[in-house]
Amino acid sequence: MKLSNATLGSLPEGIKRPTYDRTALTPGIVHIGLGNFHRAHQAWYLHQLMQLGHAQDWAILGAGVRPYDAAMRDRLKAQDCLTTLIELDPKGQSAEVTGSMIDYIEIVEGNRPLIDAMTREEICIVALTVTEGGYYVTANGDFDEAHADILHDAANPDTPRTAFGAIVCALKARKDAGTGPFTLQSCDNLQGNGDILRQTVVGLARLSDRNLAAWIEESCTFPNSMVDCIVPATGAKEVALAKELGIDDAAPVTHENFRQWVIEDSFCAGRPEWELAGATFTDDVHVYEAMKIRILNAGHQVLANAAEILSLPTIASCMQDEDVSAFFAKVEAECIVPYVHPVPGMAPTEYADLIARRFANPMIHDTTRRVAFDGSSRHTGFLLPILRDAIAARGSIEGLSLVEALWARMCSGQREDGTVIEPNDPMWEALTEAAMKAKEDPAHWLEQHQIYGDLALHGSFSESFAKWLNMLWRDGTRATLNVYLAS
Hints:
The protein is of the alpha/beta class and 487 residues long. It is 48% helix and 10% strand. The chain has two domains: 279 residues, Rossmann fold (3-Layer(aba) Sandwich), CATH 3.40.50.720; 201 residues, N-(1-d-carboxylethyl)-l-norvaline Dehydrogenase, domain 2, CATH 1.10.1040. The protein has a five-stranded parallel beta sheet, with helices on both faces. It comes from Sagittula marina.
C-alpha cells in the first residue's frame, strides 16, 4: 500500500501509526539535513510526544541546502512526509509510521525558501544534522573563515550557499523585524556540538555584519546535546523490507532497539517537552557525549578500516570475526575506556559492553562503508582527541596508532583481496596520494597537518604508527592484528 495520509487508516494490522490529527499540526521547528538518523531519532521523539497529545504546534519543516537533497524531498513529499521506521532486533522486528514532519521546504539556489521559513515567527528552533564534517572547522578546532563556501556567503549574505549562511540571513530579518531569536540545535556527533554551531554561525555573521553577530551571540541559544541510535543507510533491501510489511515507502528507515538523547536545557524561544518521550535534560551533557563519542563513534572507526581492508561488509560481521572483534575489545579496554568518565548510572566499562552487544546485532545491516565514510572528519573528531589524552597521560598508544595505520592502509584504495575501495571521503584523492607515498615512507601520512596538526612531532606516536603501517603492508592485516593482540 502506497504510504500517504489517505492510506494511514488502512495500513496492515500491527503497524503503529499517528493517532493525532496531522492536519491540525503547526510548525515550530525547521530541521536542516533530513537523513535517516534525524527521522529515526529527533523526529521520532517528537512523534512520541504528539502521540501523547503534546507538541501539536512543534511540527517539523524539513530542509536541505544542496542539490542532492532534492531527491529526498521528492520522495518524502510524494508520501506526505511520512516515514516508516522498522526496528531490527534479534528477538524480532516491528514497524511504525511517524508523522511529526509536515512539509519539506523547496530547495533552490540562494536558499530563499529556507530563509523565508526560518523568518516565520512561529519557528522557535532550527535544528541540524549536517554530518560531523559540515561545520567548517579547521584541524585546530577554529572556524574556517577562509573556506570558499564561507567566503561566498560572507560576500553574498542574501543569497547564501550554506545552511549557516541561510541561518544568518534569517536571523538578520528577524532582528530587523523585531521577531526575536530562535534556538539553534546541533544534533550531530560532535563533542560540544552546540558550541561548535555557535562558533560557525557567529563567525560567519561577523564576516559581514558585526552588530548582527553580537546580537546572535547574546540572544540565540545553542544547546549542546548527545544523540545515539544506530541507523543504517537505506537501499533496495530496506525498501523491500517495508514492502514485505505491506508498506510502499520510498524512503523507509531501519534502526536498532536503542535510543538516547541527552540535551542541555537552553532554549531561548521555548521547546517541546521531549523528556516526556524519554530524552534526558542535564547541565552536564559533556560527560554523556564524551562517553558516547569515544566508545561508540571512535569504536566504529576502530572496526571500519580493518573491515574494509578485509572485505567484511557490516559492523555485525566485524563482531563475528575473531581477530577484528578481539582487536576492537583490546583497543576499547586499553586505549579508550581509560579516558572516559562515568555518567549517572553507567560506568565506562559497562557502556563499552553495551556498545559491543549493539554492534553485534546481526539484524542491523550497517555497512562498513557507511561507517568508514568521511574518515578525515571522524578520525579528527573521534580518535585523535583520545590519542592526545593518552600521550599526555603517558598511556598506551599502540592500539590507536594501529587504528591510524589501518586508516592509511585503507585509503590506498584496494582491499587485500584485490578489489577496489571506491572513493569514500571528501578528501579521498589527497588521502589516496598520501597513503601511497606512506607505503614507502609512513611519515608522509602524518604530514597531513589539516588532520594531525602537531601529532607528527610526538616521536612515540610517529614511531608506533610507522611500525604498524610497515607491518600492514609487509605481513597483511590479520598477521598485524595478531601481533598487536599478543602484545
